[in-house]
């Protein structure tokens, strides 16, 4: 398993004309290499105005494009994903999950039917830390990760 924070891979907004003029973004190329090494993705995202954040969509747009090193189908096609979202509101990001599912499906990622929306997210964590204090939600999130691992075992044999 590899943890990725998109803030560590800043990219310009994807634009085909700029891509053709200036070449493939170096951070997108690094992510392509990393993503091709994995059979599945556990994606956690906040919800912004009822949808996924622009940075996540932009990353998918860049990384899904063919580069000199990776054809379009090498990065996402046929892989599996489990998705979760959070929001400070009562819906917990559920609207962003449907958008994310649509984007991932369009690039041939098999998205598990189970998904998690974390409502009132600021109440689920200790201060500004990343440690979840809501034990029920923590168990649900861990179960989602386990479902992804089980799917990968079924489709690819034993995984790390």
Question: Mind explaining what this structure looks like?
Answer:
The structure is a single chain. With 160 residues, this protein is of the alpha/beta class. It has one domain: Rossmann fold, CATH 3.40.50. The chain has helices spanning 16-22, 26-36, 54-63, 72-75, 94-106, 135-156, and strands at 40-46, 80-86, 110-118. It is globular, with a radius of gyration of 16 Å. The N and C termini lie close together (7 Å).
Short description:
The chain has 160 residues and is of the alpha/beta class. The chain is built from six helices and three strands, in the order ααβααβαβα.
Topology overview:
Layout: H1 16-22, H2 26-36, E1 40-46, H3 54-63, H4 72-75, E2 80-86, H5 94-106, E3 110-118, H6 135-156
Parallel strand pairs: 1-2, 2-3
